[in-house]
Amino acid sequence: MSNVSAIIVCAGNSTRMGGVNKILLPLGERLVIGVTMQAFQACESVKEIVIVARESDIDAIKAEAEAAGITKLAQCTTGGNTRQESVINGIKKISKDSEFVAVHDGARPLVKPEHIEKAIKDASVFGGATLGVPVKDTIKNVDDGIITDTPPRKFLYITQTPQVFKRNLYFEGIDFALEHGLDFTDDCQLVEAIGGKVAMTTGDYSNIKITTPEDIAIAEVLLRQAKGDN
Q1: pLDDT digits (tens, 9 = 90+) for 60-83
Q2: Structural domain tally of the chain?
Q3: Residue 55 structural domain
């Protein structure tokens, strides 16, 4: 099966990085976005990569793709005002014959190809799947500074990306959201909103999202460990 279009979303405004786009920061021998693209490049099921980014970053991303040996980069397009708008912009650029869509955060460079493939396989069974990991901490519901509930930890997962969906199901979710004026921060919510099933595919804790400067230092260590350099 080689019919998955990967949409990598990089259109954030990087306010927590002091204005520097985190996807263009160095990580190991590459930039963050280069490492991210390499994970999808290595997946047999992924036939193309579509990048959604700020206009000002697209040339740098294309240059990094070339330097990182990425042959599956099909398109780069600009983002919208929200994450959902950005993903929809990317969706417009995928091949007409793609059967699955995998949406991934550009700032999650350490995702493993085998976990991407696992999520794709689960999506082919259930219609949708997302990578995630069980929470390690006790989580509290809080209202106005007071704890109101402690949900059982065994039911709680930290959601990661990629989030993979059958193309038709995902398009149905987008139509529903647009029709009802809904704006979701998580792609699973689009499919959940129309009653679709989304499997939780267990990945690992190294699939971190780089949002603050210290995350880059953590990612460097995890990358070295993954390569067995430590």
Answers
A1: 999 999 999 999 999 999 998 899
A2: 1
A3: 4-227
